[in-house]
Write a structure and sequence with these properties.
The chain has 309 residues and is α+β, with helices and mostly antiparallel strands. The protein has three domains: 27-112, Immunoglobulins (Immunoglobulin-like, Sandwich); 117-209, Immunoglobulin-like; 212-250. It is built from five helices and 16 strands. Strands 3, 4, 6, 7 and 8 form a five-stranded antiparallel beta sheet that branches. Strands 11, 12, 14, 15 and 16 form a five-stranded antiparallel beta sheet that branches. A hairpin with a 2-residue loop joins strand 6 and strand 7. The structure holds 2-acetamido-2-deoxy-beta-D-glucopyranose (5 copies). The site of one 2-acetamido-2-deoxy-beta-D-glucopyranose has 5 residues, from strand 4. It comes from Pangasianodon hypophthalmus. This is Fibronectin type-III domain-containing protein. InterPro entries: FN3_dom, FN3_sf, Ig-like_fold, Interferon/interleukin_rcp_dom, Type-II_Cytokine-TF_Rcpt.
Length: 309
């Protein structure tokens, strides 16, 4: 009895195992050893990879996946891709006909996996000096390359192509003795075994402000000039004030001339030449006055005669 029971149990276990095995073999196995190096994603396909294609996706948010590759190759080279895959994960799936495998994830893409990572540069300009900080975007590159990776800080005057190296003794540099009023540009690149590596950082260009000493000199000069200017202006105003009448007299003749002309033009003697300079005008003016007086006298006489009549 007991023996029969055990035999039945063994048969059941066997059956369950067989059905699981069948299910497994009918499912396509996922790609293995998914890894990223120098902007190339690689993986190993299933053993019997005839007619198998692979689908590669990356996540744009935590749960949103986007297709980037469909094909039979066991790699995806994104060196020239427009997308920035930094900070994302890849996942790869095998496909045969309507059979698909589970997804296989890559590690989070970091600087060590790319060929384009750039150092981060920060700059602070004070009077007389510039502070420069250099940082890795993440610690992966340092972990991978150890002491072989280093920063190479550069600076140059704007519009000059002569880039000069600074010695990177630490990740915080203080740069002094820059020419004030000049615009300088700063940039940091990676050196891997003393050769440029990855991409250089962004360039930051800043005008170096003048030192406190230079500014004092400028402020004093400006003050002296202002005081001198105001003194000159004051003198001018005082002169005008004290000589007001004389200046008015000096300005008068040219202002009065138009009146003379007016009377001259409206007088009843058109046979007189119109424009004559100098004394002749004054003479003619006197003459007109005289004529007018005579005319007035005649009118008065007429009026008196009328009254008498
Ligand atoms: C691969 O696919 C082609 C058609 O796309 C088919 O003719 C061929 O038999 C397939 N090979 C295997 C081993 O399934
Ligand atoms: C992709 O997913 C990982 C976790 O799997 C997450 O850390 C990462 O931030 C995601 N990427 C983006 C761009 O959201
Ligand atoms: C990959 O193929 C699927 C269909 O199998 C299609 O929907 C998708 O757009 C393709 N993606 C790319 C990147 O070619
Ligand atoms: C990836 O593509 C770039 C050019 O786009 C090429 O220089 C590089 O050798 C390729 N890498 C591999 C592993 O094929
Ligand atoms: C897969 O496709 C074949 C024909 O190509 C079809 O007979 C089969 O039912 C499909 N299986 C599933 C699970 O859709």
């Amino acid at each position: 009895m007991i023996v029969v029971m055990d035999w039945r149990r063994a048969f059941l276990v066997c059956e369950v195992f067989l059905t699981i095995h069948c299910a497994c073999s009918s499912v396509l196995s996922p790609p293995q050893r998914v890894k990223v190096e120098s902007s190339v994603l690689t993986w190993n396909g299933p053993k019997n990879h005839i007619n198998i294609t692979y689908v590669v996706q990356y996540n744009t948010t935590l749960n949103d996946w986007r297709d980037v590759y469909n094909g039979t190759q066991q790699q995806f080279n994104f060196t020239a891709a427009a997308e920035d895959f930094y900070g994302t994960r890849f996942r790869v799936q095998s496909k045969r006909g309507n059979q698909t495998s589970a997804w296989e994830m890559s590690k989070l893409v970091q600087c060590a996996h790319l060929h384009t990572c750039a150092p981060i540069i920060e700059l602070k300009v004070e009077t007389d000096r510039v502070h420069l900080w250099m940082k890795h975007r993440d610690p992966s590159l340092e972990e991978k390359e150890g002491g072989h990776i280093s920063f190479n800080p550069l600076y140059w005057k704007r519009n000059s192509n002569n880039k000069e190296e600074l010695s990177a003794t630490s990740t915080h540099l203080v740069i002094e003795h820059l020419e004030s009023g000049q615009e300088y540009c700063f940039q940091v690149e990676y050196l891997l075994l003393h050769k440029p590596h990855g991409k250089p950082s962004r360039e930051i260009c800043k005008v170096i402000p003048e030192t406190s000493k230079q500014r004092n000199v400028r402020v004093i000069m400006l003050g002296v000039l202002t005081v001198a200017g105001m003194a000159v202006l004051g003198c001018c105003l005082y002169f005008v004030y004290t000589h007001y009448k004389r200046i008015k007299a000096l300005l008068q003749p040219p202002l009065d001339i138009p009146d003379h002309f007016e009377e001259f033009f409206f007088s009843e003697f058109p046979q007189h030449p119109v424009a004559r300079p100098g004394n002749q005008e004054v003479e003619s003016y006197d003459f007109v006055n005289f004529v007018e007086e005579v005319a007035e006298d005649e009118e008065r006489c007429d009026l008196e005669n009328e009254k008498k009549m």
